[in-house]
Amino acid sequence: MDTHDLLGLVLEVFTWVGFGSAVVVLLIMLIARAADGSWVETHGVIVEGPEGREVRWMTVAAELFSRPVDDAEFASLRDPDEPIVFYSRREPSRARFRRTADHARALRLLFAVTFGIGVVCSIASIAILFIPTS
User: Distance between CA 31 and CA 59 in Å, rounded?
Assistant: First the structure.
């Protein structure tokens, strides 16, 4: 087995590993999204309470909820005067400031990386077919 064949074999293995792991990550993404449920967008209000800073929001059913806001969350808000709050449709007392959770963004990045590895190795594996061996 010469170097050309070995490189082709390695690229083929990385192609299958990339696409295979991308499918697994995609299935995990779908399960995580189903478990996370749907989130409803609403406007919130940041208030300074006796226990510290908290965000308050009202649901579609006119229920009022609140939860504490830490300094890191407050610093990451685009508009602290009128923040956009996303509350869980299943459990309206749960809220966050982003539509998607951190684990969903991490899984999306992992899917992009593994799928990208599969695509790049697939293209390189096809391109190596056209390179003459010496």
Answer: 26
What separation in angstroms does the CA of 34 have from each of 7, 27, 29, 39? 40, 11, 9, 12
More confident residue, 118 or 132: 118
Structure tokens at 9: 């074999």
* Side chain identity, residue 64: L
Determine the Cα–Cα distance for residues 9 and 56; give it in Å rounded to an integer.
58
25, containing H or E segment: helix 3-36
Whole-number Å distance between alpha carbons of 129 and 125? 7
Question: Which is it for the CA torsion 82, 73, 29, 31, positive or negative?
Answer: negative
Query: Is pLDDT at 69 greater than 80 in this prediction?
Result: yes
Q: What is the pTM of this model?
A: 0.77
Q: 95-113 burial string, b = 16+ CB within 10 Å, else e? A: bbbeeeeeeeeebeebbee
Q: What angle do CA 92, 25, 23 make, to 5 degrees?
A: 130
Instruction: Give CA–CA dist 49/110, Å, rounded.
Output: 39
Lowest-confidence segment of 14-18, 40-44, 47-51, 103-107 by average pLDDT:
47-51
